[in-house]
Structure formats: C-alpha cells, structure tokens
Amino acid sequence: MRTSEEEEEFIWREVPAPSLLKPPELERETCERRRGRDLLLAIDHGRNSKHAFDWTLAHFCRMADTLHLVHAVSNVRNEAVYQATQVLMENLAAEAFHVVKAKTVARIGEGDAGKVICREAERLRPAAVIMGTRGRGLFQSVLQGSVSEYCLHHCKVAPIIIVPGKGTYLKYVKKLPSSQD
C-alpha cells in the first residue's frame, strides 16, 4: 500500500549559478585526501534564513564543501517568484564563494516546505540539513506548526536548526539616534 507522500510528485526548477563562480581546483584535494561534504541549506527570503546561512559559512562550511540551497514555493511556474528567488540564490552563491570558496547548487521546489526539504535530503544524503527558525515558543509552534519542527521529526538526515541570537535582529533594525548631548 502506498501512502499519499510516496505518490506525491515534486516539481523542481534548477537555478543556474553565475558563470563567474567556478571553484578553483585545489592541489591538496586529491583522491587520497578527504572530499568535501554535501550540506543542504533551506533558504527563504527572511532574515532568520540569512542568519542561518551566515552561521553556516562562519562555523560549519569548509572550502571543499558543496552547499545545496533549497527554497520551497507554492508554484515554480510563477516567473515573478522564480526571478526573485534566482536573484537571492545568486547573491548567496556569490557570498559563499567569496567567504569560503564553497561550490553552490540551487534548487527551487514546489510544495509544502517541510516535505520539500525532507525529500531533497533523502535524495542527496547530505552530511547535515541546516535551517533557521523564527524562535517562537513551544506553545506557538505547536499551535501554528513549524517547518523546522517538521524537519526535526521527519528528516532522515541530521538537522541543524539555527535559532536567532539575542543581537541578531540589531543588524536589520535601523539604529536610533542617541539622546545624549
């Protein structure tokens, strides 16, 4: 008996990386040495997603790794959504290349975000699935649901959930002028 999850077909659109971002061939990465890891990073247009991306580059990603950026949308055929996501993915790919010289592969998936991320994790078998969260409390996440909560329970690969830090939001908020004279 097949479940509805097995019968459901996912529609994808590849996002081509900019041609300027070709990772250099490194002499020290030969067959005898370790190869890079595959890391799956769930991306959206929110600041918590950007915080998880920055954390990944600073603390987890290495030079030979491949970052698989995955973004879930309701309709991949919508050109406006595709164009906005393509710009986001290109900017993140450029940043990943300049910070850690990591190769980046981007895909846009159609459907429920948690299911898209888990399906992609099953396909790729990455070392980790990394995603941000809004930092809602237990009661709110139980009532409203959460993509990170879904992935924590259903993903067959180790999920790393990055919660927003105390000072994280300060980067995005305009500083108010000082009241001291």
UniProtKB/TrEMBL annotation:
<dbReference type="Pfam" id="PF00582">
    <property type="entry name" value="Usp"/>
</dbReference>
<protein>
    <recommendedName>
        <fullName>UspA domain-containing protein</fullName>
    </recommendedName>
</protein>
<feature type="domain" description="UspA">
    <location>
        <begin position="39"/>
        <end position="164"/>
    </location>
</feature>
<dbReference type="InterPro" id="IPR006016">
    <property type="entry name" value="UspA"/>
</dbReference>
<dbReference type="InterPro" id="IPR014729">
    <property type="entry name" value="Rossmann-like_a/b/a_fold"/>
</dbReference>
